[in-house]
Amino acid sequence: MSTTTSSTTSPTPPPASAAPPGRDRTTRGWLPQLLLRLHFYAGLLVGPFVLVAALTGAVYALTPSIERVVYAEQLSTDGTGVHRPLSEQVATAQAYTGGERVAAVRPAPDAGSTTRVMFAAPGLGESESRAIFVDPYTNAVRGDLTVYGTSGALPVRTWVDQLHRGLHLGEPGRLYSELAASWLWVVALAGLGLWLRRLRRTRRLREMLLPPRGRAGYRRTRDRHAAVGAWVLVGALGLSATGITWSQLAGERVTDLRAQLGWSAPALDTELSSGTAAAGAHHAGHHGDGGSGEAPRVAPVSFDAVLGAARQAGIDAGQVEVSAPAAEGSAWVVREIRAAYPTEVDTVAVDGDTLEVTDRVTFAEHPFVAKLARWGIDLHIGALFGLANQVALFVLACGIAASVVWGYAMWWRRGTTRPGRLGGRAPARGALARAPWWGLMGVAAVAVVVGLALSLVGISLLVFVLVDAGRGLLARRREARTT
């Protein structure tokens, strides 16, 4: 009897497959679960901002081509022969405006194009100027429009640009686009981690990139979301990085960091050591009408002389801009403005009195990071490779928008199995609770660094955590009531 009792109460030996002492098997799979929750919450809460940015960006990508159609009368001419002197074209535009001060001129770059004479007219916004379009063959005025920025965007493109950048809400509106750009790379990389994990399990690369037909419901939506996300990944990361450089808060940090590391583009020195008027006053026959430090008026003939000096100094691109001195004692600036590859953006400062080049900055002198930044921005706005660049951007933006929509469809379909439920359930929580100590430290370090570098990511991440914690607290209370 005692033998029987002892045999029935003796402990059963552990199976051979049990984990060795000191190893906690509950830590397995914590990282994929964390990526899934991050991808889910960030996509759910930031998705609307990314969707709006993608759709408006898709339209903006095509605006350079749209401009050429809408403003064909202002941008083109059917004149032939030899261009009239630039001074005559400037004088014509100045007479048309009633004698306003000329700020800059963009001579017709090729046959069939018009010359832009730009004025610092009162009542315009920041980076805006009034442009008079002049036929270089006949000196006839062909248009009067407001242009924006160094790209010379015309009203249609400017309107779409402001919609894409800030929803026409001014500086506060720019926070929406910064939030989208700041989170896009996080969502994309988290999605990449989940995509690679699934690829490792299925070993079917072709199906991961080109989902087969015949699937329906949630599975089809998931496959399309994952496949399109993989195709647009590199482009999305590029748009996110370049978008951050333009952002309101993080952009300033990027600029400061580049300056500290010596990665900024060299600045042109326009200050004349002689301290003379430097407005071509001797060539113009009169001095500026403002006091010291004010932008002086210049005679039209000065543009011919200064442009000629710049051409002799090596400014040989077809697309150039000649800017009058910004203040007494400053030099003229002649810069190449061809953003297409190969990039031509060399710049010279010219003394208006002596026609000597006082400073020069060439694109070859730019640090490599500054060149990358320039190419990245030109890619972002569709200027680097012309029409091909614009079409690729349009497709990329549509792909990002489609991936967001399919992501929301996945969330919605996950909730259709429970009547009365709005949307699907969130992925299971508890990833950080099961993470090893080094995983917790790594996640905390990354969160702190990203939060400090990208303010809106840090603030919104804190909101995500609070929302998640609140949902968890409510769930536990409901469970407690039912038990």
UniProtKB/TrEMBL annotation:
Pfam families given in the database record: PepSY_TM
Domain of life: Bacteria
Membrane-spanning intervals of the chain: 38-62, 175-196, 381-409, 437-467
Region spans: Disordered: 1-25, 274-296
Keywords of this entry: Membrane, Transmembrane, Transmembrane helix
Compositionally biased intervals (Low complexity): 1-10
UniProt-recorded name of the protein: Peptidase
Organism (species): Janibacter melonis
